């Protein structure tokens, strides 16, 4: 079957039934699998680093030489501001005895007193098994909260407690995010179509696409080793709904246009599919291939996001180009009630721009003084970039949640009464024969508050040395101290020393992200540029579009900097800038693709200037609606209680709105008009300009 006949299958009189039956079978098979997606979720990659990072090598050595190091710690904190009383100490001793049954191996450390006499710490390793660890941490929290002497403040912190707080905060959030996304999309579709029925069709189609995507990701995770975590699962939902509705808006707008020209709705849909397929497929390819560029990242959480997102884009494309057209054709014109597009003889020769009054006026504004428009728009975007100064990189642990959680409260209590790094000391692993020299080198490092006694491994080959830092584990000062500490212990001959621990992990994470930024960002830009060159058959236009994308990203970061500073979350999680860049480039360029493919079509028919203006006029409303829907969909991430999700939602939503309302509506059309036919160099449109069609002269005079 030829591609043209295949594309027209959903619009066929019999083909639509075959497509619907196929999707019904897919839904029956995919539904039960999509529900199981949570079962294959592995969140261990969220904090993981490449195997070659020093902190990763330190973990591997520690787990081999000191098996107990594999167990995450829970740390109970007891604080009385006026000084601990005998009753408080008795309570700590009682808790220590009770905690033994939750500690792996029954080992609970002796109480560690603060120098000011106002605080005590108990630490214990908990189970490696996820379910047993969750039960143990929950029981520890209950014990601390139950019957403490009045005035004694308690909290549970440490790696095990922080992990428990994350999963506690996200409990039920999958459903909340899905509901928020669906309600947002439903409301915007209702406003867009002003029909009590039509909005349901794309919403149902995108929900089916989401089920298919979930099922495929589940199968890939179960049988092909695809890494899925709650971050990638969250982004999957947002992408499928946002991108799927964008494609639906574009297709339905083209279908409505063709219904006025054709008495047969099947013929109208076939033409609408044929004329919109290029832009939709180019958009999907841009986003999917851009996401797959994340496979070049070293950070596991970033790398795993790529294939999951690409599956979502493919599912959305498939549903919106097969299921949606089949349902629309099956239901007929009444879906558009009360604004039903009736067949009008002679509509093919009518000026299509006459139906778009607002965008006709905007096109007139752009046509009047295009150079002033694009210079003014570029200046406004450049001014927004100044807000980047409000942002910082490196999200402290105690700012990771939008609400207060126990592990963060515990960290703050420890920081108030102990050296900053007490809760998460650096860990030096070195050859046993060099222990004394390694300890001496560590003690000489500025910023190291205390170096513990070396602990020898069971085989006698290695020692483990704790080094408490003076600064908080996630601070810049602590990272500088770890850098100095590594330099000092690496210089000890034959020590083969490695420095791990929380601060070392943060430092290596920052270095890994910097490397990923240097590799992935140019790769994404190159991929998008190649796609635009192939699509537009030009070099000048794609280069202009890429320049606008970079400017738009910088403006989005600046505008988001102002908003995030006002929200109290200006310090970005290290992975956010790269992921936001990818989404803004791949998704933001969608709207320019939708516009420029229509521009190219119109320019080939009626000439450059009238073609640009007509394309802007007839696509303005639908592309703006699509941008608002996608921005609002990413805005749904604000319901999640994790600050990185909020940061991602704000940056991407703001960036998409800037792309939609300024870049695509003003900057690109004005630049294209100012350059003239040189925009299409070296393609054939740069060498000749078709004569304007006499039937549609209006915009040529705008």
Rg over CA atoms, rounded to whole Å, is 30 Å
Query: How many individual β-strands?
Result: 11
Main pleated-sheet profile: 5 strands, antiparallel
Mean pLDDT: 85
Helix proportion:
55-70%
Distance between the termini: 44 Å
Number of distinct helices: 21
Derived from helix and strand composition plus strand pairing, the structural class reads alpha+beta
How large a portion of the residues is in β-strands, by DSSP E?
5-15%
Features:
Mycobact_MmpL; 702 residues; transmembrane; alpha+beta; 5-stranded antiparallel beta sheet; elongated; single chain; 21 helices; cell membrane; SSD; MMPL_dom
Task: Annotate the secondary structure layout.
Elements: H1 3-7, H2 15-35, H3 54-65, E1 73-79, H4 86-99, E2 112-113, E3 119-125, H5 130-145, E4 153-157, H6 159-169, H7 173-193, H8 200-223, H9 230-259, H10 265-292, H11 300-331, H12 357-368, H13 370-384, E5 392-393, H14 406-417, E6 426-431, H15 435-443, E7 448-451, E8 455-456, E9 462-469, H16 476-490, E10 498-500, H17 502-536, H18 540-567, E11 571-572, H19 576-606, H20 608-635, H21 643-675
Parallel strand pairs: 5-11
Antiparallel strand pairs: 1-3, 1-4, 2-3, 6-9, 6-10, 7-9, 8-9
Helix pairs in contact: 2-8, 2-11, 7-9, 7-20, 8-9, 8-11, 9-10, 9-11, 9-20, 10-11, 10-17, 10-19, 12-20, 13-18, 13-21, 16-17, 17-18, 17-19, 18-19, 18-21, 19-20, 19-21, 20-21
